[in-house]
Design a protein that fits this description.
Layout (H helix, E strand, L loop, with lengths): L2 E11 L2 E10 L2 E6 L9 E4 L4 E4 L1 E6 L12 H11 L1 E6 L11 H11 L6 E4 L1 E2 L8 H7 L4 E4 L13 H14 L2 E5 L3 H10 L8 H7 L2 H18 L2 E4 L8 H10 L3 E5 L1 H5 L21 H12 L5 E2 L31 H10 L5 H15 L17 E11 L18 E11 L2 E5 L15
Parallel strand pairs: 1-4, 6-7, 7-8, 9-10, 10-11, 11-12, 12-13, 13-14
Antiparallel strand pairs: 1-2, 2-3, 5-15, 15-16, 16-17
The structure holds zinc ion.
């Protein structure tokens, strides 16, 4: 088989960023070598100053397919992912119909994905109020872990779990050895905060923010840490927003509990103080909090209490955002960001002394490890899938609808100037995105060991 050599002055490997060539044979990386060590006869391509980053892995995406492909769907979500530098998406088990809470539903998802993916994918299984008996079977059928909600997920059909139901599920989850990803907010503090707001004006962002206090996240995380101690399951906190919880998470890790933590680009970039009233595109749960909170989340990333950054890409038809009335109570909560997440993170990271190596760790290696794909995804190294991104880190662009590529091109980032342009994305050696176009075919597959 032919060896191809991809040169760059900045190849981002686990050992650091250095000039080199990524040697690719078929779908795999053969080796990363110094520029003068490329074998004679290799087919060469030189990206010059543009960096070669590992293909990113997004462990938190709502593809909503089958059943709600009018919200997103495999074709558009994976296309947006390729444009954003992602080469593997892990789909959340809700909003699709059926929800991925048993093996039959997983099979329906496999069918929906067939031949329609521009990047590779995988699906989390759901833990809901009544499916403790399905957990072992889902693990056997190939899910990399499970997701549950401690609060109503904003949509019917995927039930939240109360402590008692969680206790019924946890021995099963622990036995699989797979992680349980938890939406960590408890309903109690949200209900009392909402009640005390009386007839507040729900077109104000502050009203929404006050209705979902940090206390709701904090109380949920305390409960989960005590259950983690008791059942010894792998706990993963999704989309941490409340920085107040970092101290306890830090202590839990020091104690040796198997807990990992994620946050999202929107919590690291957007600030409550600058969200206009009525701007429901900024609604997500837990909410985007204030500037000080954002800084503390960066500290959490910095000291590695937060392991990874995932998008929580959660689109819906624009009508559901209630843009005309701007009501934060009735609008759908969710932010879609697959195509711009890398640029959002790179823009912020650059002002804080973080480099491409950190981005690769937060958005490649970390999510790959969580999803059990760390042997083939998330790194530029020998034996890994030839998934990589050609990233022009020194160019700016303005977020516009034509750069989003997901089904409904709305975004709270619209009009923002961001730093760092994805020039091309390669999936298992094949170019799937180049300068705004999608050459070739949707060759993405379900990731299997
Ligand atoms: Zn989510």
């Amino acid at each position: 088989m032919n060896v191809r050599a991809f040169f760059s002055r900045r190849v981002v490997t686990p050992e650091g960023v250095r000039p080199g060539a990524v040697l690719v044979e078929g779908e795999r990386i053969l080796e990363v070598v110094a520029p003068d060590r490329v074998p004679a006869g290799a087919e060469a391509q030189n990206f010059g100053d543009a960096a070669i980053l590992p293909g990113l892995v997004d462990s938190h995406v709502h593809i909503n397919d089958p059943g709600r492909a009018d919200w997103e769907g495999f074709y558009t979500a994976t296309r947006a992912a390729a444009a954003g530098g992602y080469t593997l998406l892990v789909d959340m088990p809700l909003n699709c119909l059926p929800a991925t809470t048993n093996v039959a539903a997983l099979e329906a998802k496999r069918k929906a994905a067939q031949g329609r993916c521009w990047v590779d994918w995988k699906a989390w299984g759901g833990v809901v109020a009544e499916n403790a008996g399905d957990i072992d079977e889902l693990a056997g059928a190939g899910v990399p872990g499970f997701k549950c909600f401690l609060v109503h997920p904003g949509i019917d059909g995927f039930t939240m779990v109360a402590e008692e139901q969680l206790r019924a599920a946890l021995p099963h989850v622990a036995r699989t050895g797979l992680p349980l990803l938890v939406h960590a907010e408890l309903p109690g503090p949200i209900e009392s905060a909402t009640e005390s707001l009386g007839d507040a004006d729900w077109s104000r962002y502050q009203t929404y923010l006050q209705s979902r206090p940090e206390e709701a996240e904090l109380a949920a995380i305390r409960l989960l840490l005590s259950l983690c101690r008791e059942y010894k399951f792998r706990l993963h906190i999704v989309h941490l927003s409340a920085s107040e919880a970092l101290a306890e998470l830090r202590a839990a890790r020091a104690e040796g509990l198997p807990v990992s933590v994620e946050t999202c680009p929107h919590y690291l970039h957007l600030k409550a103080e600058t969200i206009p009233n009525g701007a429901t595109l900024f609604k997500c749960a837990p909410p985007i909090r204030g500037r000080d909170n954002c800084e503390k989340l960066w500290e959490g990333l910095n000291d590695r209490t937060i392991d990874l950054v995932a998008t929580d890409h959660s689109p819906c038809p624009p009508e559901m955002k209630r843009l005309a009335e701007g009501n934060f109570r009735s609008a759908w909560g969710g932010i879609a960001s697959l195509s711009v997440a890398l640029a959002v993170m790179h823009t912020e990271a650059g002002t804080r002394g973080h480099g491409l190596r950190d981005l690769a760790r937060w958005m490649g290696e970390g999510p790959a490890r969580l999803a059990g794909c760390q042997k083939r995804k998330g790194r530029i190294a020998a034996g890994y899938d030839a998934d990589f991104v050609v990233f022009d880190s020194e160019s700016d662009f303005v977020v516009s609808a034509d750069r989003l590529h997901y089904r409904h091109p709305v975004s709270p980032y619209m009009g923002e100037k961001l730093r760092g342009v994805v020039r091309a994305t390669y999936l298992r050696g094949q170019m799937v995105f180049k300068d705004g176009e999608f050459p070739g075919e949707p060759v993405g597959l379900e990731y299997r060991q």
